[in-house]
Amino acid sequence: MEEKGNRGRMKKGGWVTMPFIFANEICEKLAVVGFSTNMINYLTTQLHMPVTKAANTLTNFGGTASLTPLLGAFISDAFVGRFWTITVASIVYQIGMISLTLSAVLPQLRPPPCKGDQVCREADAGQEAILYISLLLGALGSGGIRPCVVAFGADQFDETDPKQNTKTWTFFNWYYFVMGASILVAVTVLVYIQDNVGWGWGLGIPTIAMLISVITFIIGYPLYRNLDPVGSPFTRLVQVIVAAYKKRKLPSVYDPKLLYQNDELDASISLAGKLVHTKHMKFLDKAAIVTEEDNLKSGQAPNFWRLNTVHRVEELKSVIRMGPIWASGILLITAYAQQSTFSILQAKTMNRHITKSFQIPAGSMTVFSYITMLITIAFYDRLFIPLARKFTGLDRGITFLHRMGIGFVISILATLVAGFAEVKRKNVALAHGLIDQPHPDIPISVFWLVPQYCLHGIAEAFMSIGHLEFFYDQAPESMRSTAMALFWLAISFGNYFSSLLVYVVHKFSAGPNGSNWLRNDNLSKGKLEYFYWLLTLLQVVNLIYYLYCAKIYTFKPVQVHGKESGTSEEDGVELANRV
């Protein structure tokens, strides 16, 4: 992997590129969040979808939009690089947003408004098709943006430069801070416009913001540190598996010095240092055993379907080792997803008035999550890290594994508190005789929901940023777009699991007389608190699983070029936390 245009020219990358990357992120998040935050209201009030169908449509879209990053990461790492992947994907996303905006503006693309007490007509197949095509284009666009933009920003800091190699963890904190600030604007200003001015303007403004993000990002091209793609990382992983399988009957080699190494072959995929041998998963080491059949000739590359270097074998081991930690993040996303579905539906039934003439839009309640997240990030970066550094000696204060664990604990508290808030809401509805009304105006302040939103914000500041750090730091350097895709894949699975959980609970909690934990017709007559507490229980089990995985996790060991480094796990920990 070779840096384009850096020879004989001014040094590229560094903090000077951040205004362009962050400007792109601000506009893109305004578009994405303005596109999705209040969509539960659009689907139920404009397209007249049933509540559970609307909730699952959103979580399915969220899941698909978080699954497509695997495709974007593959294209980026194997063919065109991160810059062009982000640019083209942004244009695709723009087309999807234009399509959705037109459906909100043109009356023939949505069902007629409800009149009086008559049954509202749900969107027909053609109108739903426009919606799903728009969402699909949005998901495809997200697939190119999400795995690349974080890795592209971190790429601007050269890990081989002592002045820059400690900046990546700072970048992750500021990236999330900027992202949160833009989301804050989206969930306040844009949601207000959607609820009070109209959906045409409410979706049109994010569409314009997306266009600005593309233009801004392209303007910064001359300053970027662009890294060439080095071939499909998936192909290399499969080659190691095939080679190990072909040599499965060979006896294991206990001296790692006898395994095949070739620094010249690995140069393009190990700019920041090569991976050194670890003692785990020894069956994969067989892919690096040299036999007569390999017919190695001086100066010629081997057949990678039969023989691979230790570095390439360790790439696969690194990916496999990340798997259990990756899986632990799924349930946190499942819990977090309820903020954009059932929590908003709760807020719609409560007193949201700040003054007699102004009330908080239900979709804007997530503002409390983002404000708390921003405050937590600032506190973490400016106060917590310097203090923790004095005790741990680590540049980042605490390891990303500890940071993630703190996020898991706080997320458990968030869903536990959410259940008690729902009990309080229903008790007030019952006391005022409003329990049987499908759309009640319950005289209880919406601020009863603030604690659960704030706890989710704190949890995300710890867990999500820690997750990003983990993937970027522990993934092989040539697979960092893929690593970011794994981050979004966890979000995808979390959203899909949310849809599955809602479906299963809705189906199996059904009883006589229409009783159900999650009712379509009347939220107050259901048992939403049981659903929240079920999530709490699942997260407790997940925390135990995570603690075990974190305890046995082996950090990626790297030998920096030109320096000697041991291959013990302790060295791996030291080197992994150095960056």
Automatic annotation (TrEMBL):
Annotated membrane topology: Multi-pass membrane protein
Coiled-coil segments: none
Protein name: Nitrite transporter
Cellular localisation: Membrane
Main location: membrane
InterPro entries in the cross-refs: MFS_trans_sf, POT_fam, PTR2_symporter_CS
Molecular function as annotated in GO: transmembrane transporter activity
Transmembrane residue ranges: 83-109, 174-193, 200-224, 358-380, 400-421, 486-510, 530-548
PROSITE patterns: PTR2_1
GO cellular component: membrane
Keyword Secreted assigned: no
Classification via Pfam families: PTR2
Keyword Membrane: yes
Biological process terms in GO annotation: oligopeptide transport
Superkingdom of origin: Eukaryota
Homology family: Belongs to the major facilitator superfamily. Proton-dependent oligopeptide transporter (POT/PTR) (TC 2.A.17) family.
UniProt keyword annotations, A-Z: Membrane, Transmembrane, Transmembrane helix
